[in-house]
Write a structure and sequence with these properties.
The protein is α+β, with helices and mostly antiparallel strands. Helix content is 16%, strand content 30%.
Length: 73
């Protein structure tokens, strides 16, 4: 199942990220090795998401029903 994070800092990308919004991340071991996350952000034109510094997000646990709902946004 995908991981979810909440945006805690959007200073460098206010048009792409909404502070306090929950985002889905995609697995990317190479990005994580560089303290980055692959995030599906507000720009829906890129299905593979974009790389952002992991420090811009806090990981969160969601109930299964919430995860299912967010998978289709």
């Amino acid at each position: 199942m995908s991981r979810f994070v909440i945006c805690i800092n959007n200073d460098s990308n206010p048009a792409s990220l909404i502070l306090g919004k929950v985002y889905r991340t995609l697995p990317d071991g190479a990005a994580e090795a560089h303290h980055m996350l692959r995030v599906l952000d507000e720009d829906k034109s890129e299905p593979d998401g974009y790389l952002y510094p992991a420090s811009m997000f806090a990981p969160i646990e969601l109930p299964e029903a919430a995860q299912r709902a967010l998978m289709y946004q």
